[in-house]
TrEMBL record:
GO terms for biological process: canonical Wnt signaling pathway; cell-matrix adhesion. InterPro entries: 6-blade_b-propeller_TolB-like (IPR011042), Cueball_EGF_LRP_Nidogen (IPR050778), EGF (IPR000742), EGF-like_Ca-bd_dom (IPR001881), EGF-type_Asp/Asn_hydroxyl_site (IPR000152), EGF_Ca-bd_CS (IPR018097), G2_nidogen/fibulin_G2F (IPR006605), GFP (IPR009017). GO terms for molecular function: calcium ion binding; Wnt receptor activity; Wnt-protein binding. It comes from Astatotilapia calliptera (Eastern happy). Residues 337-570 form the Nidogen G2 beta-barrel domain. This is Nidogen 1a. Residues 46-209 form the NIDO domain. GO terms for cellular component: basement membrane; plasma membrane. It is found in: Secreted, Extracellular space, Extracellular matrix, Basement membrane. LDL-receptor class B repeats lie at residues 885-927, 928-970, 971-1015.
Length: 1143
């Protein structure tokens, strides 16, 4: 019977979670504990985070073990950690191992295409009155210490928590102990430091009887001067990749020999709240243990770069780059090849004496390094002009990139050659004499799948102000770097000259201190032989902020060498005047001689180098079930669909994935239920709105019993829904009914014909046709001429349907318009939430479309909710078809155009091929066509609403087309091109003819566009000029609606209001265009960028065009013009036998 003393309690059972912890009771929702320590429940966190094992690679194992060898090893760790206490000899233990677990989010895969994975282990050892926790982390370090949960970066945690305990009046926080802090460095330190005298091994006393105060950590933080025997390091470690004996004459061992079966933790079925939890309370668990050795190349060769090799040493292994490459062996890049660095910049910076900070987040940093010249170019975009000029002196934001890839004097190494691409740089800048301080933290996260180095930069503090319009001059400088174990430091004082707009100059100064921390491999001689000091020389410095583009640019040339200077730089390799190809390395010779040698993966004489296509040279180099992709200077192997890299990270093996029964259609949910995937092979059935039951059996709810309709309306129950219809004499949508109603088109038509009055009332002209209206005022489907006797069918607008006219005495068969049917109530599907009656705003936000109902012109923000959810998609444009109640959208991750009925229905792909970057989309609800822009193909295209009859309308003189608007009633099309060099707004007829530029002057980035047919106003929002403007396209008059808007993207008009989405405010903003002011703002609960926006009208706008009836008599595309229509053929006219006509 297994028991554990846990803080001041006695626990008989516990639960193991794939998220890196053991709990004393069932965990709550992940959102309540991820990134938080302590949680509200009892937890022993070995390394807690949003982890998973569902990819078939990561696994979690546990076992109970009381074998003598296991207990002896546990006793050694405990007694070493508490040397002053009496000797401890545990009587039983439980071992839990998390092997190769990774995150749910996307991870940088490194230069070898490997997804980052962590392995760690927890041992709970107990005796009669005491329990201990022993946590082990691998020698090669923690591979990732944080992850994205939603849009938030969450740091992993280790520690202990009792959870909530009952107080006198309520529950209060119980005892807890944190091993890590909210700093990622504390997480990485778990594998580098100790409290037990052995690196990466941590021991804690977690419970005693009968008295206990709190968790007691081990008391030996010092590391031994020499590495311990390898068998101590490998203690309890297990791996799915090394299931073989350590000794040929002994059985499989791990922490020593075992003869039982291993138990693997699997996701629990039908537990959507905690899908990956298993409870362990069986007193007899038959287990086995697998062993692995983290200290040799046999099990770690795959952790080296594909351009590296693994070498064994007495105390472990190290990775080294092969000839022609440089780096730390884990990450290697080709000598002489240009490098790229990408990342994001976050900041909260006070400028000068300003009391308010300038904040920015997720802005882009891009760098290009000409390695054989030591020249680095860095650009940071989207910086506000309130802070951009004041950052110009801080060229050392990019200086660390220069240091990493600096030109090397013979015998000296740049940063990347020594420590590779995973390190943390912390710098403090103090401006003189104002004493403003700025902290810079940069996390270099290794090489991604595109062979680009990834960096995250954070700026926090205050900088000396540099006025907008000033220029900065920085003199060349040198700084000494001091190297010591896992830490590199440097400091310097730098002068710079500020030239103000009036021509005056100021010489200023700041002090600079920085530390660079990294994980090195000290088994080999590489780091031991590293020079303790090196000097970085930086010249040809350039820094400028461009307010028009909100962009700051840095450029600098860096060289690393002797602090004493040495010989003058006469060799062209060190001056950059060598003439070698940018993909070549310059080799220093005697005196001023040198040679150019093409980088690995390139061929040529060194002055001209050409990429080698390794995939063409050896198509089978990646092996079976793999695809070889050639890249400049290298190639990449990727597994085919249904395969993934095995434990060697090179062989593609078939994926044995859990079955998503919802997607496969093998679930047992009711046809009237939603199937929700719950991880593993689990799913949950939930009855749709309008039905009730357990999800496997769902019955219709009779909404008419709940008085859902207006008191002056009749309710009709339907399956899963209901309809409401105002009683005769009332008008409305059934949810709101008012006495009387406005005259319909048919009634107005009839009155106009009968408008001639005589002594006996209205007298129609002799021989005139008088339309017939039904009880609701709509056109009867069949109309007849009272004088001639001819009859014919009409559509709902009263237009004659071609081919239906009959002679006297005959009646055509006309189809009922169903115009009297009331609006349909909610009828949702699994991924579409039906809209309530009325007018709504639809807007895109990453992988979802949300809606805000409108009450009049006011946004009913409390009733806002998602309509459509498409995970891992990026939706750009949104449009609405008021006829079929259909929302259309464009998305760019897998370029496509799709649609879904907002009253319920599955999302349907309309166009999924021949697209590259579809953005803006517009609907002609009269002609039943759609128009869209493609910013990669630089053209505008049209198609029928089902995706057929595709035709390119405009394909010349477009650079960055985005927003597009259709005016079906007048037959016009409008679009915006945000080409930074020559932005413009254009128009044409809907058939593409009569194209002309409407606006060309005083534009910056015209992102949003909308047209109001009632006022004939075309309006746009410009993220460059930060203005909203309108004009009458027919008259050319132009007026400003609002200034100082921030970063608009999409816009739509409804009545007096214009609604637009803003990237900086993450909001939908309402603007009263007549009052020229903002009237409201809505910020969704999820704060991310908002894209396109459209109005979903309760009823279609009034109007018609020549294509609204019978497709205008066209065989394929009917495209309206102001005075007619064009019958156009799709681009595959020959295949469909189409002939074009114009009317």
């Amino acid at each position: 019977f297994f028991s554990v003393f846990w803080i001041n309690d006695f626990s008989f059972s516990f639960q193991i979670n794939t998220n890196g912890f053991v709990a004393t009771k069932e965990p709550e929702s992940e959102l309540t504990y991820l990134g938080k320590m302590p949680p509200k429940f009892g937890m022993i966190a070995a390394l807690q985070g949003d982890l998973h094992t569902s990819d078939g690679v990561g696994k979690v194992f546990f076992r109970e073990d009381s074998s003598p060898d296991i207990l002896r090893r546990a006793a050694e760790h405990i007694n070493r950690a508490f040397p002053e206490d009496d000797e401890i000899n545990p009587t039983h233990a439980v071992v839990v191992t998390w092997v190769d677990v990774t995150t749910h989010g996307l991870e940088s895969r490194g230069d070898s295409g490997i997804k980052k994975r962590n392995t760690f282990q927890l041992v709970i050892a107990s005796l009669e009155t005491t329990s201990y926790a022993i946590v082990l982390y691998p020698r090669d370090g923690i591979k990732f210490s944080s992850m994205l949960v939603g849009d938030t970066n969450v740091i992993m945690h280790a520690g202990f928590s009792k959870g909530l305990v009952r107080g006198f009046f309520s529950s209060i926080k119980g005892p807890y102990y944190r091993t890590t802090t909210d700093d990622e460095q504390s997480v990485r330190a778990l594998a580098e430091e100790t409290n037990s005298g052995l690196r990466g091994v941590w021991v804690y006393e977690i419970g005693t009887s009968p008295f206990f105060s709190n968790v007691a950590p081990g008391e030996v933080p010092e590391l031994p001067t020499e590495a311990p025997p390898q068998e101590d390091v490998d203690a309890y470690e297990e791996s799915s990749a090394a299931r073989r004996p350590l000794y040929p004459d002994r059985p499989v061992v791990a922490y020593p020999p075992y003869l039982q079966e291993q138990t693997e933790v699997h996701p629990v079925q039908f537990q959507p709240q905690n899908p990956e939890v298993v409870e362990v309370d069986d007193p007899i668990i038959n287990v086995d243990v697998f062993s692995y050795n983290l200290g040799s190349c046999a099990n770690n060769r795959n952790k080296c770069s594909k351009f590296g090799e693994c070498r064994d040493y007495a105390n472990g292994y190290c990775c080294h780059c092969i000839s022609g490459f440089y780096g730390n062996g884990i990450q290697c890049v080709a000598e002489g090849k240009p490098q790229r660095v990408n990342g994001k910049v976050h900041g909260r910076v006070f400028v000068g004496r300003s009391p308010s900070p300038v904040e920015f987040a997720n802005i882009d940093l891009h760098s290009y390094i000409v390695a054989n010249e030591g020249r680095a170019y860095v650009a940071i975009s989207d910086l506000p002009e309130t802070v951009g000029p004041s950052l110009e002196p801080l060229v050392s934001i990019s200086g660390v990139i220069g240091w990493a890839f600096a030109l090397e004097h013979p015998g000296f190494k740049n940063g990347f050659s020594i420590i590779g691409g995973e390190f943390t740089r912390q710098a403090e800048v103090t401006f003189m004499p104002g004493n403003e301080k700025l902290n810079i933290r940069q996390e270099f996260k290794g090489i991604d799948e595109h062979d680009h180095l990834i960096v995250s930069t954070n700026l926090e503090g205050r900088v000396a102000e540099v006025p907008l319009g000033s220029t900065i001059k920085l003199d060349p400088y040198s700084e000494i770097y001091q190297y010591n174990n896992n830490l590199i430091t440097s400091s310097s004082t730098r002068d710079y000259v500020v030239t103000l707009q009036d021509g005056s100059r100021e010489t200023r100064r700041y002090q600079w201190r920085e530390t660079i921390s990294f994980n090195g491999c000290y088994h080999s001689e590489t780091l031991r032989d590293m020079k303790p000091t090196q000097m970085l020389s930086v010249d040809h410095i350039f820094a400028i902020y461009d307010p028009a583009q909100r962009l700051i640019r840095f450029a600098l040339t860096s060289k690393i060498g002797d602090i004493n200077g040495g010989q003058p730089e006469q060799n062209p390799c060190l001056t950059g005047r060598h003439g070698c190809d940018t993909n070549a390395v310059c080799k220093v010779g005697e005196g001023a001689t040198f040679t150019c040698q093409c980088a690995a993966g390139f061929s040529g004489d060194g002055r001209a180098c050409y990429d080698n296509d390794e995939c063409r040279e050896d198509p089978q180099r990646c092996g079976p079930n793999a695809i070889c992709n050639n890249q400049p200077g290298t190639f990449r192997c990727e597994c085919e669909e249904g395969y993934q890299f095995g434990s060697d990270q090179r062989t593609c093996i078939k994926v044995d994935r859990p079955v998503d029964h919802c997607e496969a259609g093998t679930h047992t949910c009711s046809p009237h239920a939603q199937c929700s995937y719950a991880g593993g092979s689990s799913y949950v059935c939930t009855c749709l709105q309008g039905f009730t039951g357990d999800g496997r059996s769902c019955q219709d709810i009779d909404e008419c019993q709940q008085s859902r309709c207006h008191s002056d309306a009749v309710c009709y129950n339907t399956e899963g829904s209901f309809t409401c219809q105002c009683r005769p004499g009332y008008s409305g949508d059934g949810f709101q009914c008012l006495p009387g109603r406005p005259k319909t088109r048919c009634e107005v038509h009839r009155e106009n014909v009968l408008g001639v009055s005589g002594p006996r009332g209205p007298q129609p002209p002799i021989g005139a046709y008088i339309p017939t209206c039904d009880n609701n005022g709509q056109y009867e489907p069949m109309q007849c001429h009272g004088s001639t006797g001819h009859c014919w069918c009409v559509d709902q607008n009263g237009q004659e349907i071609s081919g239906t006219r009959t002679g006297p005495g005959s009646r055509p068969m006309c189809i009922d318009h169903n115009t009297g049917l009331p609006p349909v109530g909610p009828r949702p599907r699994p991924d579409v939430d039906a809209l309530t009656p009325g007018t709504h705003l639809l807007f895109a936000q990453s992988g979802r479309i949300e809606h805000v109902p409108l009450g009049g012109y006011d946004m009913k923000k409390n009733d806002a909710k998602p309509v459509l959810h498409l995970p891992e998609k990026v939706i750009i444009g949104v449009a609405y078809d008021c006829v079929e109640k259909m929302v259309y959208w464009t998305e760019i991750t897998s370029p496509s155009i799709s649609k879904a009925n907002i009253e319920g229905g599955e999302p349907t792909s309309v166009i999924s091929s021949g697209l590259e970057s579809p953005e803006g989309i517009a609907i002609d609800h009269l002609g039943r066509t759609m128009f869209w822009t493609d910013s990669a193909k630089d053209h505008i295209e049209v198609a029928s609403l089902d995706g057929s009859n595709r035709r390119v309308l405009i394909n010349t003189d477009l650079v960055n087309p985005r927003a597009i608007i259709a005016d079906p009633s007048n037959g016009n099309l409008y679009w915006a091109d945000w080409n930074r060099k020559a932005p413009k707004i254009e128009t044409s007829y809907m058939d593409g003819s009569n194209r002309r530029v409407l606006v060309r002057d005083n534009l910056g980035l015209p992102n949003g566009l909308t047209y109001d047919p009632h006022s004939s106003q075309l309006c746009w929002a410009d993220a460059g000029t930060q203005k909203m403007e309108c004009m009458d396209p027919g008259r050319g008059s132009r007026s400003t609606v609002l200034e100082r808007i921030q970063y608009p993207f999409g816009m739509t008009a409804f009545g007096k209001n214009i609604y637009y989405t803003d990237w900086r405010r993450d909001a939908v903003i309402a603007v009263d265009r007549y009052a020229s002011r903002e009237s409201d703002e809505f910020q969704p609960q999820k704060r991310t960028r908002l894209y396109g926006i459209a109005t979903a009208y309760a009823q279609c706008p009034a109007g018609q065009n020549y294509c609204s009836g019978n497709n205008g008599g066209c065989s394929h595309l009917c495209l309206a013009t102001p005075n007619g229509r064009s019958c156009k053929c799709p681009d595959n006219a020959a295949q469909v036998g189409c002939v074009e006509r114009e009317y």
